[in-house]
Prior knowledge:
heterodimer; A: alpha+beta; Immunoglobulin-like; 5-stranded antiparallel beta sheet; 32 helices; B: 5-stranded antiparallel beta sheet; 5 helices; 39% helix; coated pit (chain B)
Amino acid sequence: MPAPIRLRELIRTIRTARTQAEEREMIQKECAAIRSSFREEDNTYRCRNVAKLLYMHMLGYPAHFGQLECLKLIASQKFTDKRIGYLGAMLLLDERQDVHLLMTNCIKNDLNHSTQYVQGLALCTLGCMGSSEMCRDLAGEVEKLLKTSNSYLRKKAALCAVHVIRKVPELMEMFLPATKNLLSEKNHGVLHTSVVLLTEMCERSPDMLSHFRKNEKLVPQLVRILKNLIMSGYSPEHDVSGISDPFLQVRILRLLRILGKGDDDSSEAMNDILAQVATNTETSKNVGNAILYETVLTIMDIKSESGLRVLAINILGRFLLNNDKNIRYVALTSLLKTVQTDHNAVQRHRSTIVDCLKDLDVSIKRRAMELSFALVNGNNIRGMMKELLYFLDSCDPDFKADCASGIFLAAEKYAPSKRWHIDTIMRVLTTAGSYVRDDSVPNLIQLITNSVEMHAYTVQRLYKALLDDISQQPLVQVASWCIGEYGDLLVSGQCEEEEPIQVSEDEVLDVLEGLLVSNLSTPVTRGYSLTAIMKLSTRFSSLNRIKKVVSIYGSSIDVELQQRAVEYNALFKKYDHMRSALLERMPIMEKTATNGPAEIVQTNGETDSTILDTKHLPNITQPASQANDLLDLLGGNDVVPVIQTTVPTKPASAGGELLDLLGDLSLTGGPTPTPAPSVPMSQPPFLLDGLTSQPLFNDIAAVIPPMTAYNKNGLKIEFTFERSNPNPNIAVITIHATNSTEAEMTEFVFQAAVPKTFQLQLLSPSSNVVPALNQGSVTQVIRVLNPQKQQLRMRIKLTYTHKGSPVQDLAEVNNFPPQSWQ
Amino acid sequence: MQFMLLFSRQGKLRLQKWYVPLSDKEKKKITRELVQTVLARKPKMCSFLEWRDLKIVYKRYASLYFCCAIEDQDNELITLEIIHRYVELLDKYFGSVCELDIIFNFEKAYFILDEFLLGGEAQETSKKNVLKAIEQADLLQENLDFQIRLLPAGVLSPNISSESTGLFQS
């Protein structure tokens, strides 16, 4: 059998292959040869064969059949064999294979070998890939070697111990005695690895940390070593560009950081040396900056005095101006970490940071963007926003979504004026409209709704934007919603803020219809525009045109559009009397405290992003839809009609009501209620409290007795009470309507009104048929907000059909138990 | 450090050192993705990037990319120094090292790396000591392998970094 070819020969041969197929062929041939050689248990050439196998493994070919051979090599007495064997073990074996455990004994023997280089091989292998079992078995040997005077072995043992601790943290205690005089070594290798070991121990165990702080007095020792490194003259062995052993310096600084964190004494003890390093380190090369970087991180983390902190931030500021982009990157990362705690100091470097937005490197740009958002405040908002909007224009698409969200947030927090706010939003929508997150559409709609005086201006600008470009869906959606709401302002040319444009109803309808047919519009957008067209039926006079559009879409393929169109159609035909009330102006919406700004409305079962729109849909299939013409309920001036929260399309979602907050409707009715000054924005958002929990009643702390509110002609209505859990000012009343006559009551509708100082919300009833002979009941939930804790009074109106004839009755309910409103 | 990879500009792996336990399949996947990501970087970009939950530090020396994955708390700038130190060691050992040296003597490259780093951390900060240890270990080997370094024929344009370009030339 000829000797297997040498490693270099093989490498040369494989490299001559011109195609992947040729290479594969060569490899397969060689593998076959190697396999048979292994089978023959050839000791002489095993090393050579495994080496070849490792090369082929690196090229990506399977080499598992060599695993056992590695073990045999490790067990051999020849150094060459051991060297290749251990290398093979590190490359081919890992803890997942059971084979690796067989190494344990070999390693154990080699750890006690007479030759330090063999011991070194064993330590290295154990420290790189030793499994937990191996570590457990061999920890004792490692610990022994940690105490040897041979620095070559000691340094390796220290790092091996680090690995053992990472794998089996419980063994940490075992290495403690050996760490006693690690730092008194002169050998830099040992020093460095010891610092790493101590760092690992301190990071893992708070007990160890305090032990090293108090008992071992680690900080003074480290300070002394660091000082020597800085002060000592040129040492050729450890010098890197004029700095003595920067690796060791950086590790020491890192350990000091851990020791000083949260501890006043330690922090004080290291103050001087940190200042010294920060001021004396050469900054012309990367090495010096690496040390400064670590120093800055340490200063920021420990309890340093303010002078030192300012020094650190200034170093970072200087980094920002460095030509080396790596340094700039590192500076931005560190500033991001410190911007919360040292905000003012970082502000001083704001202009440099903003300049970094124009950097070519993607990572730097991202960091600069994040930092810029963190630095925005009331004072610099205008200037910063200019830069950020410019950045939004020119940045990569991956950034645009984050940038847009950040701009919205910043604008919301610090907008100097409503007009500026709306302008900013417009700018974002027009430049990066397609990247804006989906949840910003409802947020923006809410913002626009609440900026009442800007309605005309907003709708005008949005309309103009639509004329330019209808491809950016979020923009289109917001614009169509606004046109639907404020189309009358648009047509009447009422804008105060800028030159009002002349636009006719037909033109507006043209635009909206254009959206419906355009290929650029998504189904969601189409829904928005259809609803907008519908809303305009109460604001415009071109009813016929609108009716026509609506009826066309009644046969649309898109189910959503079809449903809307059919319902709107029905609204025209059968419920025309309700139309104006249903399509009224949206009242001011409150942001809830429980939901973040990204979720104005989270209603059970409603996932449509056009939540606000669907709330206007009457559900024709549920005749229990409460009509809004409550004006006849009004008896005196002190009674406010209830805004019925609209019926959801799914009857089961009892909690899924809209945050149709009660504006104070002017008693003369009309489509544009002005927001009530008596309803301040800071009111607790009671309507949404507990919305997400079903059932609504989860606080039975105060048991309030039920009462009979009405009992006439066989119809009895009982009220039961609960207190709403998060808000004690809210009383939750459930009405139970029962019918003792022999005929059932159909089309049963319950309405209620309360005095002005209260607010009321009526949820949907369980059904609209009250079965005869008390066989069942209709239940409905009322929520009453009573912030002034006044005596609860209510006027109720009942309508139903009994034995074929309609019945209507009004009643006052005054006998509320005191606990329900106190 | 979690791992170090050396690869050529064509994406061929020249050395892989893993300090975390991963299956072969995972290693292959990580290697493939990371090589792609790094090779896509433009020359003017900075040497650091975030990849998955790791920080990647890379530097190109002639035709070879040296790429390390470090953890959140590790210092990126000093990692660049570590990479540089390793190249210096290779250079001293091979005498003006080029990619070909590492291709044909990959096991030596590993041996040197294992004398410099252990478990992902530097074990010796003195260049002299690392090289001395390697020298002694080499002497221990009963078969002294004299490797003939292959020099490719032909004149190389100074702008093209090929496998025989010394790593310290730009």
